[in-house]
Design a protein that fits this description.
With 405 residues, the chain is an alpha/beta fold. It has two domains: 138 residues, NAD(P)-binding Rossmann-like Domain (Rossmann fold, 3-Layer(aba) Sandwich); 266 residues, LDH C-terminal domain-like (Alpha-Beta Complex), CATH 3.90.1820.10. It contains 18 helices and twelve strands. The strands form three sheets. Strands 3-2-1-4-5-6 form a six-stranded parallel sheet, with helices on both faces. A three-stranded antiparallel sheet has the order 7-8-9. Strands 10-11-12 form a three-stranded antiparallel sheet, with helices on one face. Helix 6 packs across helix 15. The protein starts with a strand and ends with a helix.
Length: 405
């Protein structure tokens, strides 16, 4: 079995996935891991870290060589990197008075990231169609929903988008509620999905969660949305704050303090990660990332339940055709998404505001229509709450100019 990592210079993420692969004896036997990155120095660091695992290892700057004959392909890259791309995504909007926290999913930062990332991922898929047409693409790159949508519209590659927000938030909520684990049913879109059912040993925990007053300081936004919409969101408060129009406002600085919103958080995290020492060895602990567990289920037939990002083919009744995050099960028959039915109408309405931005960004890339970039930004909830139509048009101009340098 050959597993290829595109963007393997992301050493921390690669470390977790490769460690997971070798932690399953039934996967490690006969395993070849192919590492690919455009940064030779970072690629060598991941190669050195992986060498101690005793598995067949390939490392290449050539994407096609890495993909040739792959059975599974992980994508985990960031087009443009921290500098210049991410810095531009934050610095240019600041000149217009538009502040962000993460900027990788929707918002003006998510739109720009989608514009530069979709073409690269589609190039990967075209190579896969030629070199490993039966391989499964396990897609970890943001903006997840936009990328999954574009892949489904334009390629024949089997793909599923994977994230850690569902299981990670469930773990946080269990701690908040003082229980060992939670049983849940969760659906929506990536980074804006909601726990429709939340239980512990059969007991509905939503009444307890809704009544909770000792709210963690770092999670005030999600609890505020819970209070008004009735359900808890999967993605973190710093993410959620920029998906909606109510929390980050240049004329309301008191909201930043009230809801403890970390502006420019992604810049801080990126600088911190770049300063970290590259790990020298794989970890011995198995992570809760879905990716390798999905591979294990497909290879062994042992079912694995997870939330995956796939196209809405009759899965959520009151969302349009878009990339949705729904319960799935993987086994020897493949990956089977589970229909959810209709979401509570207030949740579907909230989610559709983000789907509009995703759709127009994907359309802009696939058709080359520059005006759809404007339309995506104009319909983005946070951007529209801060800037006029003319300002948004000028901001998009400045961003596209800066990214073209």
């Amino acid at each position: 079995m050959k597993v290829t990592l595109i963007g393997a210079g992301s050493t921390v993420f690669a470390r977790g996935l490769i460690s997971d692969l070798v932690s399953f004896p039934e996967l490690a036997e006969g395993l070849t891991v192919a590492l690919m990155d455009i940064d030779a120095k970072r690629l060598r660091a991941t190669e050195r870290m992986t060498a101690s695992a005793g598995i067949q290892l390939e490392a290449s700057l050539d994407r096609r060589a890495a993909l040739d004959g792959a059975d599974y392909v992980f994508t985990m890259f960031q087009v443009g990197g921290y500098r210049p791309a991410t810095v531009i995504d934050f610095d240019v909007p600041k000149r217009f008075g538009l502040r962000q926290t993460i900027g990788d999913t929707v918002g003006i930062g998510g739109i720009m990231r989608g514009l530069r990332t979709i073409p690269v991922l589609l190039d990967v898929c075209r190579d896969m169609e030629e070199l490993c047409p039966d391989a499964l693409l396990l897609q970890y790159v943001n903006p997840m929903a936009m990328l999954g949508w574009a892949v489904a519209c334009t390629t024949s590659i089997r793909a599923v988008g994977l994230c850690h927000s569902v299981q990670g938030t469930a773990r946080d909520l269990a701690a908040d509620l003082g229980v060992d684990r939670l049983d849940y049913r969760c659906a929506g879109i990536n980074h804006l999905a909601f726990y429709l059912d939340l239980r512990h040993r059969g007991e509905d925990l939503y009444p307890q969660l809704r009544a909770k007053t000792d709210i963690p300081e770092w999670n005030r936004v999600r609890y505020e949305v819970l209070r008004h919409f009735g359900y808890f969101c999967t993605e973190s408060s710093e993410h959620l704050a920029e998906y909606v129009p109510w929390f980050i406002k240049a004329t309301r600085p008191e909201l930043i303090d009230e809801f403890n919103i970390p502006l420019d958080e992604y810049l801080r995290r990126s600088q911190e990660q770049l300063a970290q020492v590259v790990p020298e060895r794989l970890t011995t602990e198995r992570s809760d990332e879905y990716g390798v567990h999905v591979i294990h289920a497909l290879e062994t037939g042992d079912p694995f339940h997870f939330n995956g990002n796939v196209m809405n083919d009759g899965l959520i009744d009151n969302l349009p055709s878009c990339c949705v995050e729904v319960p799935c099960v993987a086994d020897s028959d493949g990956i089977k998404p589970e229909p959810v039915g209709a979401l509570p109408p207030q949740l579907a309405a909230l989610i559709r505001t983000n789907v509009n931005v995703q759709e127009l960004t994907v359309e802009a890339v696939l058709t080359g229509r520059r005006d759809h970039v404007d339309h995506a930004a104009m319909l983005d909830p946070h951007t529209a709450a801060e800037l006029s139509l003319g300002e948004i048009h000028d901001l998009v101009d400045r961003l596209l100019e800066a990214h073209s340098q």
